[in-house]
Design brief:
The complex is a heterodimer of chains A (about 575) and B (about 180). Chain A is an alpha/beta fold and about 575 residues long. Chain A has 23 helices and 20 strands. In chain A, strand 2, helix 2 and strand 3 form a beta-alpha-beta unit. Classes of the chains: A alpha/beta (about 575), B alpha+beta (about 180).
Chain lengths: ~575, ~180
């Protein structure tokens, strides 16, 4: 075959993206990828979103992936471009988000020579990717890219990195996209073991105090409808992890809200007292279990997960079912013939809720984050796409925003990445065909970690309401300092060193407002949420010393839970 | 307790590093690791000696299986197997001790593979316990250098062919 039928690596790259139906890439050009960008100039089947920092691109890809259900795609250059993606990749890995990150690399003959803008990104990202590849020859490019998308989006999803040396991008080869993919070492198991599911059904039928413990796996497998059927047919109450919020409607009375360190009192009591714990797509994270030795000791544990390594990793379970959560829930619901008798159990949980409801100080006239989040929840009916950063406002969002839909919360659960909210919200805006409202919550600390991306939002006229909950502190660290570290507020006070956020917003071309008055919250939110052709920034100056409760101390158990009313001295 | 796992991996760039990274990242111990080619060109076999109870081994094997380049993982702890290791042991000998070293080495079916007027190198092959015993016995003579291959292992008995060469199926033709 003659050379003129051959395609360059850059052309093959975009042919592959077309095959994978990629519509958006988040990227930043550079020397090693300049040929790809030359080709991109004439590509019209996808939109490239120019970010301002490669970390922003990876967080955008996360927001995009969670809302769209498709892998987020990132394209960056070699060296610093590549290393800047590390945090976002690690974040996506911890939260099992499908993502394909393409990095430029120095030409193959220079690899290992400490060439300009060289970094061994494949070596660096090995422990934080589901898999990664270095494409050493243009003939391997198409197959490698196909594998990358396949691995990222199947089984337990995760980020996959593909390193593309500059000469490989420039070389020529035949383009051939195989229709079928076969990786003999990678065969995710989707169907759960039938007998195990049958056994689980029998046990659930006889349970007196059953509880559904639901994680992000239910959302990632699109199993929310199946979960709703299972929960409604059996009447079993549902508690969710941070990543699981939205898998079951927060306004449904069977929802107990979030469990774990800052979960509701009644969800944590329920997990402590239940006799059958049905774990669906969750992984017994330490923020959920606290002390594993005292975690839910009385329960028979059923664990459904697509990742065999999640089984028996932190907590030993009685009945593991490896398979796709959506499939297994559907089969399980079909197998259950009798409703378990749980009226007494539900009454007990209600009693716990009545004893210690979620409360915050409302009578002192001061503005609090909880109030703002409650208002956002009310004004959006729990239907918005919500992005949060990490820390106090994140936990308050989990507590006070009533998520009614899956794929609605983008937050950093596993890695706890500050600075994710602003770019994640931007990513969601490109994957939002139903034009849902998008709200990004940040603290004053985290906002400053990726605020450069405001210009990306402004440039693309994205209708996002950016909310800064400004307490002039790194609030969660401050909370721990107050409770456990002798009230030494070491380097957490930002009062003297915060920028003027309204000026920041306006400098980026984002209409910005600030208030510390309760009575202005409603009208500002209304105004901002009504805007649908550009971003708006709202800064709410809240009380400095507010704390997140309830709180199960790190490594503690439910009996150690700190309820606000038991700590009158700590009340502010 | 020492446990032996055998892992078949794709003979690709970085496959070995992925396994090593997984062990260090998850905090699992490695006593020894050996890697070499198999009867199939594009497949390598790793033999890993690690330590831990059943729960840890369960996690180790699952984590190994999770790696994309891993084709098959077998925990040999509870099944009949053949274990072999090779050691090269160099001893600086005294004139009156060489005979004794040679005799002891013979007991372990060791071979003298190198000798000069100061030092002797002995090669010993066998199950890891035998190597341990030989090292202990030779230790008093002053071992100055030692190299051990790490354990390699195969399951005993008949083996059904579970992994086939991709190449034998005929690679996709390139147009």
């Amino acid at each position: 075959m003659s050379d003129d039928k051959k395609l360059s690596g850059a052309q093959i790259f975009f042919e592959c993206l077309k095959e994978e139906k990629v519509e958006h890439i988040f990227g930043y050009p550079g020397g090693a990828t300049i040929k790809l960008y030359e080709e991109l100039y004439d590509v019209d089947f996808l939109e490239h979103i120019l970010v301002r920092h490669e970390q922003g691109a990876t967080h955008m890809a996360k927001g995009y992936a969670i809302v769209s259900g498709k892998p987020g795609v990132v394209l960056v250059t070699s060296g610093p471009g590549a290393t800047n993606t590390v945090t976002g990749i690690a974040d996506a890995y911890m939260d099992s988000v499908p993502m394909v990150v393409f990095t430029g690399q120095v030409p193959t003959h220079l690899i290992g020579n400490d060439a300009f803008q060289e970094a061994d990104i494949v070596g660096i990202t090995r422990p934080i990717t589901k898999h990664n590849f270095l494409v050493r020859n243009v003939d391997e490019m198409a197959e490698t890219i196909q594998k990358a998308f396949f691995i990222a989006s199947t089984g337990r999803p995760g980020p996959v990195l593909v390193d593309l040396p500059k000469n490989v991008i420039a070389d020529f080869s035949n383009f051939n996209y195989p229709d079928k993919i076969d990786i003999r070492g990678y065969k995710p198991q989707y169907n759960g073991h039938h007998n195990q599911i049958k056994k689980a059904a029998k046990i659930i039928e006889k349970a007196k105090k059953p509880l559904l413990y639901v994680g992000g796996g239910v959302i990632m497998s699109d199993g929310s409808n199946e979960l709703k059927v299972l929960a409604e047919e059996t009447g079993i109450p549902v508690t969710m992890t941070l990543q699981g919020l939205g898998a079951f409607p927060g306004t449904n009375k069977q929802s107990l809200g979030m469990l774990g360190m800052h979960g509701t009192y009644w969800a944590n009591r329920a997990i402590d007292e239940c006799d059958v714990l049905i774990t669906l797509g969750a992984r017994f994270d330490d923020r959920v279990t606290g002390d594993v030795n005292t975690f839910s000791q009385k329960s028979y544990k059923i664990h459904v997960d697509i990742d065999p390594t999640a089984i028996d990793k932190n907590v030993l379970v009685d009945l593991p079912i490896v398979g796709d959560v959506k499939h297994v829930i559907a089969e399980l619901a079909a197998e259950i013939e009798k409703k378990p008798k749980i009226d007494k159990w539900l009454k007990q949980i209600q009693q716990w809720e009545d004893e210690c409801p979620l409360v915050y100080e409302k009578d002192d006239g001061k503005l609090r984050a909880e109030y703002i989040i409650e208002k956002v929840s009310e004004q959006t009916n729990g239907d918005a796409i919500i992005c949060t950063d990490v820390g106090q406002h994140q936990m308050w969002t989990a507590q006070y925003y009533k998520f009614n839909h899956p794929r609605s919360l983008i937050t950093s659960g596993g890695l706890g990445t500050m600075g994710i909210s602003v770019p994640a919200a931007i990513g969601t805006a490109f994957a939002n065909p139903k034009k849902r409202k998008i709200v990004s919550f940040s603290g004053d600390g985290g906002f400053q970690m990726n605020m450069q991306e405001l210009i990306t939002a402004a440039h693309h006229k994205l209708p996002i309401t950016f909310i800064i909950i400004n307490n002039s502190f790194l609030g969660m660290v401050r909370q721990w300092q107050e409770l456990y570290h002798a009230e030494k507020y070491s380097f957490t006070d930002l009062a003297e060193s915060n920028p003027d956020f309204v000026k920041v917003g306006e400098a980026f071309g984002v209409e910005s407002f600030s208030t510390n008055k309760i009575e202005e919250v409603d009208s500002l939110l209304e105004k901002a949420l009504a805007v649908n052709d550009r971003p708006t920034l709202l800064e709410f100056k809240v009380v400095k010393e507010d704390m997140v409760f309830p709180m199960v101390p790190s490594g503690g158990s439910v009996k150690d839970i700190i309820i606000r009313k038991h700590n009158p001295n700590k009340l502010v | 307790m020492k446990r032996t796992i055998t892992v078949l991996v794709e003979n690709t760039f970085g496959a070995f590093d992925r396994v090593a990274t997984m062990f260090s990242g998850k905090g699992f111990n490695i006593h020894s690791i050996s890697i070499g080619r198999t009867e199939i060109d594009e497949v390598s076999r790793m033999t890993i000696v690690t330590e831990g109870n059943d729960q840890i081994l369960d996690q180790v094997t699952k984590q190994l299986n999770r790696l994309i380049d891993t084709i098959k993982v077998v925990d040999l702890s509870h099944i009949p197997k053949t274990l072999r290791e090779l050691a090269l042991i160099k001893i600086n000998y005294e004139h009156d001790s060489i005979e004794e070293i040679k005799n002891l080495s013979d007991i372990f079916r060791g071979k003298v593979v190198d000798i000069n007027n100061k030092s002797v190198t002995i090669e010993i092959t066998g199950p890891p316990e035998k190597i341990e015993a030989a090292v202990n016995v030779l230790h008093p003579f002053g071992i100055v250098e030692m190299a051990r291959s790490g354990t390699v292992a195969l399951k005993r008995g008949e083996q059904l062919k579970e992994v086939k060469s991709k190449k034998s199926k005929g690679k996709k033709e390139k147009k």
